[in-house]
Amino acid sequence: MKFLKPLCLAAAALAAGALSSCSTTGSSSGGGLAAYQSYDRPAKKPSNPSAVKVKVSLSKQRVYVMENGSPLLVMPVSVGAPGSVTPAGNFTIFNKEHFHRANTHGYAYSGNSVRKTMLSSKPGGWLFKGTPMPYWCEFKPNYGFHTGWVKHTPCTHGCIRMHENLAPKFYNLVKVGTQVNIAQSQPEDSTLGNIPLPPDAGPLPDYDPMSMYVGNGYFTRHKAPSYE
């Protein structure tokens, strides 16, 4: 399948020393990883998959997966930071890919050595794998929902980043053709949006070893999804 070029990470981020916007890794200090990994939210399977709709609140950083007005999944997400906002409007999911990778930023590797890099800056003779973006659900060319560290403030370059344990649930609840409404706020913010949050992923350490990002380890770095 053709890998599209996400707009989730600018070269300037690498120049600043971090692949943090739509990267799968967090910063190098802090704690709370066990609490982050254990975070989960309940989900229900739809009676009619064709009736499922997705609503995204940018100000609340919430996603509501709904079926005929009833919630199937309510989850916190990370959305675009100022200057690289998540697009608002009505969209349709048109591409789903569990093993999606970026094609401009990721990891260079040679033997047991792995380092984060842009493809254009890959050391000579090294191989390259794009940043893993598991459970990719694309709603606008180069913009999608995908697994990544979830922070408490907007921080991505436009994509909608989901918690590792919730991404597979979302992926299974939606399909190609599912409608997505993205707005500054949603009516559900006041009735459904006040949910427990995972620890802020900003200070969490990278997963180790980094080689898991070159292989398929990160694509299955989650709990087995369950449904009520």
TrEMBL record:
Pathway annotation from the record: Cell wall biogenesis; peptidoglycan biosynthesis
Active site: 146, 159
Domain L,D-TPase catalytic residues, every copy: 52-183
Domain of life of the organism encoding this protein: Bacteria
Any one of the GO BP annotations: regulation of cell shape
Keyword Transferase: yes
Alphabetized GO MF terms: peptidoglycan L,D-transpeptidase activity; transferase activity
Keyword Glycosyltransferase: no
A Pfam family this chain is assigned to: YkuD
GO CC, alphabetical: extracellular region
Signal sequence extent: 1-18
Record key words, sorted: Cell shape, Cell wall biogenesis/degradation, Peptidoglycan synthesis, Signal, Transferase
Family under the similarity heading: Belongs to the YkuD family.
Name the UniProt record assigns to this protein: L,D-transpeptidase
